[in-house]
Amino acid sequence: GCILPMAGSSPAVDMHEVPNEEEEQAAPSIITQVEGVFTTKLPEEYQIPDDPIVLEGHLSRSGLSSMLNDLLSLEEPVVFDFIVNGQFLRTSLAEFYTQYGLSSEVACKIEYVLAMPEPETAEVTQEEEWLSCIEVIEGTGSGLYATGSMKGSWSLYTSEGHRKLFGQRDSDASVLALAGRENTVVTGSRDGLVRFYSLGEGNKSPELISSANNGIR
């Protein structure tokens, strides 16, 4: 036999047919295109009309850079960087718009600048001590610079080839300041002493010619 529902009771419901509230919520729309206006402060040769352009959402920095090169008809390819909403673009446009909650229906300003190349290290000067200051010695002609260390020593180098000419420690107090011009170098240490050196001729070792204490203890 069948079991009939009691009068006034609700009919049996298959729980599998109950709609899931989460399923009823609309899935976030996928951004496929955005509208942008390119702007720049670069010279006229890098400027394009500031008309709104429809851009594919999958485009990232490299794709936009290639597009700009085509629009500008540059003889030599140039790498550009792009700033959207005050942030450098490091993802696709679609991901960027989603991350920052931007509307794809509103034209967004996209500023482009020349990309900075990766820094190249030509030569490295190795010091055994932590450096506290560095100073170019002006007027020497041969190009010299001095470095001061946290352990109280200072050294003199050639700008070309970074050859060490001289190194001296006058105290254990850190060298906090350096100044130099022509044949004179002045050092200032944490112990309050200011020392004056004469460089001499022919890159000879500097000679301490005088010192003064500014009263710091």
Automatic annotation (TrEMBL):
Gene3D superfamilies: YVTN repeat-like/Quinoprotein amine dehydrogenase. Keywords: Repeat, WD repeat. The keyword Mitochondrion does not apply. Residues 38-96 form the NLE domain. It comes from the Eukaryota. InterPro entries: NLE, WD40/YVTN_repeat-like_dom_sf, WD40_repeat_dom_sf. It holds the Pfam family NLE. GO terms for cellular component: nucleus. The keyword Repeat applies. Residues 1-26 are annotated as: Disordered. It is found in: Nucleus. This is WD repeat-containing protein 12.
